[in-house]
Amino acid sequence: MAKEQLMSYEDAIERFEVVIGLEVHVELNTVSKMFCGCANNFGSEPNTNVCPTCLGLPGSLPAVNRKAVESSIAIGLALDCQIASNGRFARKNYFYPDLAKNFQTSQFDEPIAFEGEISIELETGEVFMVPIERAHMEEDAGKLTHVGGATGRIQGAEYSLVDYNRAGVPLVEIVTKPIYGALDKAPELAATYVRAIRDIVKSMNVSDAKMERGNVRCDANVSLREKGAEKLGTRTETKNVNSLKSIENTVRYEIRRQAFILAAGGKIIQETRHWHEDRGHTSAGRPKSDADDYRYFPEPDLVPVQPSKEWIEEIRQTLSEKPALRRKRLQTAWGFADLEFRDVLNSDLLDEIEATVSAGASPQSARKWWTGELARLANAQQVAVQDLPITPEQVAAIQRLIDSGELTDRIARDVVAGVLAGEGEPAEVIESRGLKIVTDEGALIAAIDKALASQPDVMEKIRDGKLQAAGAVIGAVMQEMRGQADAARVRELILERAK
Amino acid sequence: MTEITSSSAAVLAGLISSKQVSSVEITTAFLDRLEKLNPKTNSYLHFNRENSLAQAKKADQQLADGTAVSPLHGVPIAVKDNLTTTDAPTTAGSKILEGWVPQYDATVVRKLREASMPILGKTNLDEFAMGSSTEFSAYGPSRNPWDLSRIPGGSGGGSSSAIAGHLAPLAIGSDTGGSIRFPAAMTGSVGAKPTYGAVSRYGLIALASSLDQIGPVTNSVMDAAMLQDVIGGYDPRDSTSLPNSLGSMVQSVKEADVKGLRVGVIKQLSSDGFQPGVKACFDDTIEKLAAAGAEIIEVDCPSFEYAVAAYYLILPAEASSNLAKFDSVRFGLRVTPDGNPTIENVMAATREQGFGPEVKRRIILGTYALSSGHYDAYYGSAQKVRTLIQQDLAMAFTQADVLLTPTAPTTAFKIGEKVDDPLAMYLNDVATIPANLAGIPGISVPNGLASEDGLPSGLQILAPAMQDAQMYRVASIVEKLYMDQWGASLIARVPDLEAL
Ligand SMILES: [Zn+2]
Asked: Does residue B190 form part of some domain?
């Protein structure tokens, strides 16, 4: 495909007003699926979590998962939405082989939650109120794998495989109203908004919220209009943008692409597009038009969901602290500088650090472990730092040994390596690897004397006041002790010898 | 053995429980008869002697062990072929499901098994229950035992002809606009559509979800009541099933008493458009009830005029969506066209070849009615009519305990007579459709033979939602009035099929 022409971002922003709209799909982490008792379980053998209902076999019927409704209401409440007293399901009719019944059971004009808002704080501290139009319940489709063919798409494939394990997994789709006035911050706002949604559903534990697994997926709508124009421009919808960085890049790219077309007198085609992170651009997908007729009608196999006021209040009581408030509280309590704290947020380590602090480590030491050594190790192994096989309690235990002088930073890193290698608890690693600081001063003095013997001029220099000369001896001693000595104590001993 | 096959289910149940006759003997008698006569009536699409007898044997064994499980223990039954069964194909009368054996039992089928009722086989129907004659079955029409050149009604003509022809003592039907009651009227049998939600729809291949209801087709009102007691009740797998019990139908039949009964005659369904012989039977019933002491009241249901029109928007709309799953991907027929088949044209070719003309007609109608720009005018308006009909009925039921109409405008017509005239076919259900739109129970009981053709006429009794017991009570009163006159059930007068 020919590379599309783009206007520079600055020029585009200068000339056009950006309007964005975001649709975020959140996969709920309920035990069972939305309309049947099958396990809602990621990573099972294909087509093992299936039954007549989620396979859409003739005669089967759906029954609503109460827990999924509860989670949906909780999300609605967290977004300051109103909760429908009569939430009806509707059928969205279209043919696709991953859709067992060839209709998706969703909600149309009577969503479970509607009319909410969420405040989003950008890096600059600027706060945007993002208006929420609705949050509705629906079921996920199965997963298609296209075999053969060049593109990995259904077109041109030799055959396709369908896995219905995901069919019927509960989703909540959160739809914003059009967001105006973000100007040059639109891409950042889009990404920050999605992160906020992800943080909320994660903190409420209604979703596993792993974007890389598709637990949180975003469709980004972008349109431009001439500054001062009243009528909205034609929008494009980029589907399934699955990382925060991609969302920002997608919006930025669409602004530049659309601006170029409009400035040249062209027209934006209303279509769905796909984002290619590797190539850094979007490409046209299916044209969307009025011919796209889903023939929505109320789902006759389900009675409306009518949550009682008492139930809604009960759910409201269980709502956890809002992520934005929690972040504020933790930053203050920990006394982190803005930059330090942003680092923590960007690497998504709030939970881990909080747990490490509650296990007894100081906030700064917890931060250093997670954003420093552990992040480095995770990066080297190409896994998420959260997925490293070490617990906050173990990190805190290691830090405690440093604080009490039983480990040096360097030995502590060996202990961490041992824990990660599956050698057991920190104490076991220390024991089996023999990683204790040598506190036997006799042994230290013997090592110092040995080092001094091979570097006889050092004593002279120290006595002349050139204290840095001790460094070479310390190095030799540390080597002799295989790193298991407290360098500060070695230094003291050397200076004492020189007296 | 003719004594066995012409007995009511209640009598058979008594013979079994008193160990005078075994379930195996009774089941064998019906199997012998249906194997011989089904070629004449085409009532059954599938039956399997070994399988049925194995179930009968098990029922007898339980009885021998002293563990009878239900009042109909051991009595065999025929099941309409749009209910899923794990041990028999389930086709819904369509080529698109030819040979499909479901992986699960419908809730009603499970209840029959739990009640130790051997299943004789699966009965014929118009494709996906769309029709009122069985002429739209992909496997040929069933024939009326009263006259084999005539239709047995539809869509459940397989079940009604099996009952009238004594090829089964009991049968299960499904009723979306009259598919139980109309065939019952055509064959002189009893057919009841319970209140919407009284019987679980789980495992019933959906035609129109908001209208479909499973119910009994039988020789007598008591048999129907006994069967509804077995198959009814809440099912967590069907969200639209009623959580509260409707009480015992059998008890209500036993306590039938005409005293204080207020009978409503619907102005819009008592005069025009009925065959004179059918109308005469209806008038006769009203006279009998009045003579027995019932109060007769005329009630007005002005919205009924629009019932058929509304029904033929709501039904196709829901059906167009319900039938979308027949796409060759997971089960049933798959047609791969020549050339370079894509998923779209495999789906299209499968549906083109797999569906018959009436099914296609209704899918197109329904797709159109739901399309944006047409939704409000068609589907939306139809739903408003539905509300008005419910209001008419609610008003009528403040004046009367039950409402009576002829079940069908005519007696059984000839095979081929209306098959090319969809509108004429649709009007067969003019009296039965309102009950489905309103979700109320309705039953058809035989009320004589029309003078001009000697064919059965049916009386429909409608009761308020969840008052199925009331419906059975009045049905039993009517049945008794006629039994007193005839000395036997109408079905006893069915010609000898073996001689035909
Ligand atoms: Zn399932």
From this structure: yes
CATH of A441-498, one of 1.10.10.410, 2.60.40.1120, 3.30.70.20, 3.40.50.150: 1.10.10.410
Structure tokens at B284: 């006769």
Q: Cβ–Cβ of A93/B324 closer than 8 Å?
A: yes
Q: What is the pTM of this model?
A: 0.85
**How far, in Å, is the centroid of ligand 1 from the Cα of A336?**
48
Structure-token match 């002790």, residue found: A481
Query: Which residues in chain A touch residue B176, judged by CB atoms under 8 angstroms apart?
Result: none
Q: Which member of B22, B80, B132, B320 is catalytic? A: B80
B459-492 in b/e form (b: 16+ CB < 10 A) is bbbbbbbbbbbbbbbbbbbbbebbeeeeeebbbe
Q: Do A58 and B324 touch (CB under 8 A)?
A: no
Mark whether B18 is an active-site residue. no
Residues within 5 Å of ion ligand 1, judged at the Cβ atom: A 36, 38, 51, 53-54
- Containing structural domain, residue B51: 2-265+398-499
CATH of the domain at B76: 3.90.1300.10
State the first-to-last Cα distance of chain A, in angstroms, to the nearest integer: 78
Of A52, A63, A154, the CB nearest to B236: A63
DSSP per residue, B131-193 = -SSSTT-TT----BTTBTTB---SSSHHHHHHHHTTS-SEEEEEESSSTTHHHHHHHT-EEEE
Strands A127-139 and A170-176: antiparallel
If one counts the domains in chain B, the total is 1
Query: Looking at the domain assignment, is residue B422 inside a domain?
Result: yes
Per-residue pLDDT of B154-209, as tens digits, reads 999 999 999 999 999 999 999 999 999 999 999 999 999 999 999 999 999 999 99
SS (H, E, C) chain A: CCCCCCCCHHHHHHHEEEEEEEEEEEECCCCECCCCCCECCCCCCCCCCCCCCCCCCCCCCCCCCHHHHHHHHHHHHHCCCEECCCECCEEEECCCCCCCCCEEEECCCCCCEEEEEEEEECCCCCEEEEEEEEEEEEECCCEEEEECCCCCCCCCCCEEEEEHHHCCCEEEEEEECCECCCHHHHHHHHHHHHHHHHHHHHHCCCCCCCHHHCCEEEEEEEEEEECCCCCCCCCEEEEEECCHHHHHHHHHHHHHHHHHHHHCCCCCCCEEEEEECCCCEEEEEEECCCCCCCCCEECCCCCCECCCHHHHHHHHHHCCCCHHHHHHHHHHHHCCCHHHHHHHHHCCCHHHHHHHHHCCCCHHHHHHHHHHHHHHHHHHHCCCHHHCCCCHHHHHHHHHHHHCCCCCHHHHHHHHHHHHCCCCCHHHHHHHHCCCCCCCHHHHHHHHHHHHHHCCHHHHHHHCCCHHHHHHHHHHHHHHCCCCCCHHHHHHHHHHHHC
Is B311 among the domain residues?
no
Map tokens 């028999």 to a residue.
Answer: B88
- Mean residue pLDDT of chain B comes to 96
CA of A300 to the centre of ligand 1 (A): 19
Domain boundaries, chain A: 9-315, 321-433, 441-498
Q: Which amino acid is at A415?
A: V
DSSP calls for B356-385 = -HHHHHHHHHHHHHHSTTTTIIIIIHHHHH
Instruction: Tell me whether residues B324 and A95 touch, CB distance under 8 A.
Output: yes
ipTM: 0.95
How do residues B246-301 score in pLDDT, each as one tens digit?
Answer: 999 999 999 888 999 999 999 999 877 899 999 999 999 999 999 999 999 999 99
Residues in B touching A100 (Cβ below 8 Å): 325, 330
Instruction: With respect to residue B388, please indicate whether it lies within any of the assigned structural domains.
Output: no
Measure B101 CA to nearest chain A CA, in Å: 11
